[in-house]
TrEMBL record:
Monomer. Belongs to the class-I aminoacyl-tRNA synthetase family. PROSITE patterns: AA_TRNA_LIGASE_I. Its main location: cytoplasm. This is Arginine--tRNA ligase. Residues 5-95 form the Arginyl tRNA synthetase N-terminal domain. It comes from Desmospora profundinema.
């Protein structure tokens, strides 16, 4: 519990004590006290509706109750500078924020761990994200999902959750057969042989390059194999190399996974067949026109779903049901799926399937990432200038860098559409959101450099902190104190963009403070105090940027 949280707890206790002293209610009758931050700063730093909660017990109108509470409140003990009764009975508090200097001491003790908490209490969370078919390069949608998923996992870890990051490898089914047929065609082309390219095949540069590599590695050996043996060999070769490239691209993007779960393993273990048999045994399937159907509409879906087709093969949803059944059976408290914009219809059918299997569907959270539009020179970009093909994650990392790409993809709620301006992302201007925050950190370090050049030690000086009396200084201290709570809320709400928003607000306050106040000056005590404050701001910026997977540069 940091200084801000301790102050709020003391205020809550004092409000309860004031209600008792005023004879409004016995201690055990008083409901839980809620504090909130008013929208308008003129209404104070905190407010409570306790008086309205006590009307039934005290049998008085709320304003009378609020006045009685205020009259019996120990203001000094509760850090209150001013208190007002407003509206129908709200109590607004203007806090003496000098106590907030204690947050700098706490930050110095915690260092890189500042912002972490045990809010998640070790709850086990599985986060599945990216899970792109290994049939080519990762595109913009995957890039956004990867950034959001990775930042969410970082935030959950910081808030005390036990997180597992998982990539589901779609290495079974028709898409992999199409990849193998496409690769076979490119392999034959590389050998100078006639090649029939599949109508719905993969025409990306990755498959063409891999076809030439396969020809270099194997020569014409595969041509002389049987059709089945040749296609199996090519399929395994393609899967291995394409998956390796995906892993490397994600590594370059600073995204790592704890688990790579193979769809093929579900078929080999019999888990897919077992899932259908379990649903049938529970009475949740029926046969119609030679197919096996799930009674999904009985569990909230808009219609029933085919599990097994007339020819005995599984539909695409069936292995997904087996996969999610496996997730539940692994004992996770919460299951998070981060999917692309084309997966909206997936949510009700998967929740229906899990409910039919006897699992709690509310344990599953689906974050659907919306579409990304890329702009350069004011025009919509669909093709890479380098390759003439669709823009990939690699293209974006090369064009604008990993920091800017991750930051911009993480800064918006997943369910909002995103316009990505490539020119803005590389500009050194305050309009560039990642530059704006990184520059705040670099700006602080330039002050530290100046102090060092003048022989002034850059270190926390607890004895000087009472010199921080400016309103902007208290605003910065309060913002620093809010950081752990902001991370905890971002984790609880599965809203990693809240951390990005926090960093932008902190950077805004820092830039404003820097422009209004000299840090290094003749007053040595004030200089040490302001350097101490900047040490705290720099630490919060660095810790927050670390959660987003972005560097905190010392120079720009």
């Amino acid at each position: 519990m940091n200084a801000l949280e301790r102050m709020q707890e003391v205020l809550k206790l004092e409000l309860r004590a004031a209600a008792v002293r005023a004879g409004l209610a016995a201690e055990e009758e008083i409901p839980s006290v809620h504090l909130e931050v008013p929208r308008e700063k003129t209404h104070g730093d905190l407010a409570t509706n306790l008086a309205m909660q006590l009307t039934r017990i005290a049998r008085q109108n709320p304003r009378q109750i609020a006045t009685a509470i205020v009259d019996n409140l120990d203001r000094k003990k509760a850090f209150i500078k001013e208190v007002q009764v407003a509206g129908p009975g709200f109590i607004n508090f203007f806090i003496d924020r000098s106590f907030l200097t204690a947050v700098l001491t706490e930050m110095a003790a915690l260092g890189e761990r500042y912002g972490t908490s045990d809010a998640g209490a070790g709850e086990k969370v599985l986060v599945e994200f990216v899970s792109a078919n290994p049939t080519g390069s990762l595109h913009l949608g995957h890039a956004r999902g990867a950034a959001i998923g990775d930042v969410l996992c970082n935030v959950l870890n910081a808030a005390g959750y036990d997180v597992t990051r998982e990539y589901y490898i779609n290495d079974a089914g028709n898409q992999m057969n199409l990849m193998a047929l496409s690769l076979e065609a490119r392999y034959r082309e590389a050998l100078g042989l006639d090649a029939a390219f599949p109508e719905d095949g993969y025409r990306g540069q990755d498959i063409a390059d891999l076809g030439r590599k396969l020809a270099d590695d194997e020569g014409d050996r595969l041509v002389h194999l049987s059709d089945d043996e040749r296609l199996t060999t090519i399929r395994e070769y393609g899967l291995k190399h394409l998956l390796e490239k995906i892993k490397q691209d994600l590594e370059d993007y600073r995204v790592r996974f704890d688990s790579w779960f193979s769809e093929t393993s579900l078929h080999q273990s019999g888990a897919v067949k077992e899932a259908v048999e379990t649903l049938t045994r529970l009475g949740h399937t029926y046969e119609k026109e030679g197919a096996v159907w799930l009674k999904a509409s009985a569990f909230g879906d808009d219609k029933d779903r085919v599990l097994v087709k007339q020819d005995g093969s599984f539909t695409y949803i069936t292995p997904d049901i087996a996969y999610h059944r496996d997730k539940y059976n692994r004992g996770f408290d919460r299951i998070v799926n981060i999917f692309g914009a084309d997966h909206h219809g997936y949510v009700p059918r998967m929740k229906a399937a899990m409910a039919a299997l006897g699992f709690d569907p509310e344990k599953m959270t689906f974050l659907i990432t919306q579409m990304v539009k890329l702009y350069q020179g004011g025009e919509l970009v669909k093709m890479s200038k380098r390759t003439g093909k669709a823009i990939t994650l690699v293209d974006l990392m090369e064009e604008v860098g990993v920091d800017a790409t991750r930051y911009i993809f993480a800064m918006r709620s997943p369910d909002s559409h995103l316009d990505f301006d490539m020119d803005l992302a590389v500009s050194h201007s305050n309009d560039n959101p990642v530059f704006y925050v990184q520059y705040a950190h670099a700006r602080i370090n330039s002050v530290f450099q100046q102090a060092g050049d003048q022989g002034i030690p850059v270190a926390l000086d607890p004895e000087s902190l009472s010199a921080l009396t400016e309103e902007q200084e208290h605003d910065l201290l309060q913002k620093l104190a809010e950081f752990p709570g902001e991370v905890a809320v971002a984790a609880e709400q599965m809203a990693p963009h809240r951390v990005v928003r926090y960093l932008h607000e902190l950077a805004t306050q820092l830039h404003s403070y820097y422009n209004a106040h000299r840090v290094i000056q003749e007053d040595e005590t004030l200089t040490r105090a302001r350097l101490s404050l900047l040490i705290g701001v720099a630490q919060a910026l660095k810790n927050g940027l670390s959660l987003i997977g972005v560097h905190a540069p010392e120079k720009m």
